[in-house]
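Researcher: Quick one. two chains, 540 residues in total.
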Amino acid sequence: MGSVREYFSSIANGLGSAAKGMGVTLRHFTSEPHITVQYPRETKPIPPTYRGMHILEQDKCIDCGLCAKACPVDCIEIEAEHHGRVLEWTKFSIDYKKCIFCEFCIPPCPVDCIHMTTEFELATESPDDMVEDMLTWTGLRPQDQAKLEGKTKPKAPAAKPAAGGGGDDLRSRVAAMMAKKKAEKED
Amino acid sequence: MDILITFFAETLGMSGVWPLSFAYATCIGSLLGFVTVYAMFAIWMERKVAAHIQQRLGPMEVGGWHGWAQSPADALKLLFKEDIIPDGANKWLFWIAPAVVFCGVFAGFIAIPFAAGVQIVDINLGVFFIIAIASIEVVGVIMAGWASNSKYSLFGAVREAAQVVSYELPSATALLAPILVVGSFKLSDFNAYQAEHGWVLFANPFMWIALLCFFIASLAGCKRAPFDLPEAESELVSGFHTEYSGMRFSFFGLEEYVSMFVVSAITATLFLGGYTLPFNLLDVGNLPAPFHLIGVAVLVVKIFAVIFVQMWLRWTLPRMRVDQVMSLGYKYLLPWGLFAVAGTAIWQVWMEG
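Model:
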């Protein structure tokens, strides 16, 4: 008798669980909202603390190299020639093939000039393009030149550097820089 | 069919065997076109159903509106892919297997009554003709698995061979019940009966058991989850068609959806009223020439309802084990199918006098 009861209860079990499962899937099919995002056209909100691509405030940077030293994978390369306090930039690059986005390069900076943006679309068509140049300018700007020349005079604080949008807030700078990077990418 | 023969014979003035040959060629050509379009739509639908059950969106990019062109794009891609025949494969069997599989299922279309007069051949044993001819597919599957010279393929083929008996028997048994009610194997008789008496499903309570048994067995016949043991991608890569690529591979995909259509057509015709409307609101069977095509629309709607349930079940249940399929076939479906047949027989004698 036991096996007969088992037989019929297994039928009831099977049909019941299948019906219950189909109810669940039907509920998901009809009423639950979809959770995927049509990515290139819409994105999920990115948290402000997201660790994306870096941005450098070059006019603040003093070429101390602490960020490069802090980097656990040695992906930051800095080269600049010092003329007193005026810097003649040749290189500040981050190799995104190596970068692990750990954010260790941010805290050591004594002048708070390197930041991470929320920019995450870093795909390139060739590995060589993954070494990103962080510099806004290379060499000496006219105002740096003026500063250098002014240095020969006994006392010349010179005009505050105005180019590069000096003095405006960081947020707009990041936005401008990201727009520039985007435009470069689309070229 | 008769319309086509008279068209070729009288309007175009053909004689001898030509009207018949041209009529068959027209039918088969248009059916091939229909099957291709249907299969593309069904694959798109399957992906959409699967996606929405999993709260995704499915294909959205190709072609604009909800990715409608995804399937044609995939078909085009498969057409251009390399056709690889593995080393050590039995080339001839490997080459012929997809054709055998597809032809076996496609031949089932010969007997499906889409509407009054829209049927290629109204075979006297139409029901069993479709079941029998669809079984040829199994031969093709075993050929494909054996010829591939791959252990995974062979496992898939052996599983299919083991599975075939356990579902062919219950499905044929379950179909005897509606046949007892109508008293004929001829598919057009089912439509005539149901236009007069209403759906066979409501003829007696045993019909529900027969429908359930046949539906479950037909799922196994189409090799669809939860009975997709011959493919079982998590165990056997993709079973008997592991080694296939390009167009030959797409024939196996086509075959799955075409066989879904055929078994759904049997379900719709035998249980769900065929091309007749519920309560025979409009006598579709006796409408003048162009309007009987309404019957095609009615049948296709019913078929797609059954196909939707198949897809729904596929994305609900996990795959069964081999022994579970065997015990389901022999211990549950077959006795209950026989019970439905016996019950229907007694009902027919007792209640209908």
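Chain B touches chain A through 16 residues (CB under 8 Å).
Researcher: Thanks, that's what I needed.
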